[in-house]
């Protein structure tokens, strides 16, 4: 049993944490790609398109673009804004999360909002972003090892995986769905960058060796069963957390049914099918289904009509 | 005993082992917690004084930084909203504990228990048969006319007659060394989380000294609070559901609300989480509605129910008060307790104690003049430069004139305000709050302090053996409110007279293992 408002905050805490991590990684990879002699513009374009700001960074330099993506407090989709919202949600439910977990997030928030943050970023953006990502991993680790894996924790994990499924889908859409403006990404540097943006390079290499192919990347990031950032893995987690909550709630399965359907869809599809019809439709389905699951979570757990729950 | 620091040392040669000092520690005319007027260290301060003397200025500053950082990390902060960006500030906190020997504490404890018992009886009476008003002990219009008197509470059953379940009285130590009550806080007193956080910090800052001193623990406060709240629930409710009601995350005491909820293991709810249906109070959970039995509310009376009190409030729940009247939920503290900590009623508390308990007050009041009485008004107006004048309804150090420190113009303006509405003002002599050593800008200096102990009352009345010591951080300032630049420090209540039997002057090597 937990307050509906609290469930809502924990869910969004998870979403913002995941978003902050993803954005940090996009910025980091983008900056790194432009360091090399080879052409890094495709990586910049991918990153900007994945955050919904298409353009090749020609207007502004990639450094300025990355800096804005990380530190712009006016932009609601920057890393610092995501962290501020994550912390605000954590503060709302301060009694529900452990001190260890709270301190990780609070410390990180204080760091990125500090007056010196801008200078630290320009002095060493790679280190800065590396530390932010590492701190977010610490946060997740602290949550995993100190919080009870009950309802509170599940709502937070639900937020994390919902956000992840959508972010990875969006990234793949940008790279591999046919778009009239640009062809598919095929440049080696860009493909490696995509794997880095999904934090997938090393696990990918262990499966497919150093053959970096769009087909393999799609297979890995959509269908891999064990990789925690594949869409299939994320949807399986979503389904698992929702069915555990539904058991304790003894509610009709609303979001749980939707999640189960999406999971099955990914379980029984394969990469040949994906290649035959193009990656676009499946990825769009994932994004849309996630949005429906999100609504169903709200209707079931958070913003349910009171009339249905009043004692007779 | 070694006289290592003469309190009134004026020269560098005599000033000493404490790293404090280019100018030595110079207590003024007020009672000093650490030094006697002759410059001797009071015995119960011996171990701490010894430790302070051996630590260098660097070391002390380092410990102060560690302390502040731990507060920041835990989020024990308030938010300052600026034009450019918002920043987090901690409530200033001082690393040296304030120490109270066992004998002094037992008197405080007895006095507070007596006082709260009498005030609860007073509340039960004025919301019941009003005997005390009939007998003319307290003027009828003073009570019934007070804005904090809630007619809605009349003839309403309150278990154990415990109206004020949580009380945080403000005590001060007068020049003669005696503690007196400055104010009773019976509405929604705050600060207890600072007491607990300060203790946590002090244990890390001076572990050896803490162990050696034999300090009574305060850590049981949350479970004592929970059992007090549970004792207010109806007997037939097997395992009563307790919640903490907060105005929300933007309230300056939000940290404390979340802290208490977390340590009691009960939900922290906001008004929007509550639903009242057929005089029952429920909270919206992920699995539907769940009934609530006891609400520890940290929302002022005015805001708890828009149907009964302020209609524009969204901090409470519509229908909450009716559910309370129907006996289906308990609100703690009860609405309307504020009338008993009214600054004008305060003057009558010794009479109230005598009336209900047949005893003399153990802890005295500060001499108080009621401007509503013409003769007292004349006296006050003629001596404005000697008195502190307070508006009856205000709190937090607002609406107040400190006569001796005010300009003639300020006094004249205030005199007009008093004459316009004499019933709204009381006057008290300026009291020299006692001083205690604090680390200020790398030096140890005396600063004025008060004492806010916390008293719980339900089935039983319990005084927590500890308190929040508030500090006026500005030199010479007597205002300790955190809204006016005050800070806080830990308060050690000693289990017995330790430090007496150590033999060596500093008591650094402890008698205890």
Please, could you describe this protein's structure?
The complex is a heterodimer of chains A (312) and B (513). Chain A has 312 residues and is mainly alpha-helical. Chain A has one domain (4-304). Chain A contains 15 helices and no strands. Chain A has helices spanning 4-33, 41-50, 62-71, 79-92, 99-113, 117-123, 125-146, 151-176, 188-197, 201-208, 214-223, 231-249, 255-267, 271-277, 279-302. In chain A, α2 packs across α8 (151-176) and α4 (79-92) runs antiparallel to α5. Chain A is globular and about 65 Å long. Chain A starts with a helix and ends in a 10-residue tail after the last helix. The mean pLDDT of chain A is 88. Chain B has 513 residues and is α+β, with helices and mostly antiparallel strands. Chain B has a domain at 369-429: Dna Ligase, domain 1 (2-Layer Sandwich). Helices cover 28% and strands 21% of the residues of chain B. Chain B has 14 helices and 22 strands. Chain B has helices at residues 46-54, 57-74, 102-126, 131-134, 140-144, 192-205, 207-213, 221-230, 254-264, 320-325, 343-346, 349-357, 374-382, 408-420; strands at 77-81, 86-90, 93-100, 166-168, 170-173, 179-183, 242-245, 268-269, 274-277, 280-285, 288-291, 294-297, 330-332, 369-370, 387-391, 400-402, 425-429, 435-440, 443-448, 452-457, 461-472, 486-493. In chain B, strands 3-22-21-20-4 form a five-stranded mixed β-sheet, sandwiched between helices. In chain B, a hairpin with a 4-residue loop joins β1 and β2 (86-90). In chain B, α2 crosses α6, α3 crosses α12 (349-357) and α6 packs across α7 (207-213). Chain B is globular, with a radius of gyration of 24 Å. Chain B starts with 45 loop residues before the first helix and ends in a 20-residue tail after the last strand. The interface between A and B is medium-sized, with 34 and 30 residues.
- End-to-end separation of chain B in angstroms reads 23 Å
Mean pLDDT of chain B: 86
Principal-axes shape call of chain B: globular
Q: Structural class given helices, strands, pairing of chain B?
A: alpha+beta
CATH class of the domain at 369-429 in chain B: Alpha Beta
Largest sheet of chain B: 5 strands, mixed
Count of β-strands of chain A: 0
Q: What oligomeric state best describes the polypeptide chains here?
A: heterodimer
The portion of residues assigned to helices of chain B is: 25-40%
Strand order of the largest sheet of chain B: 3-22-21-20-4
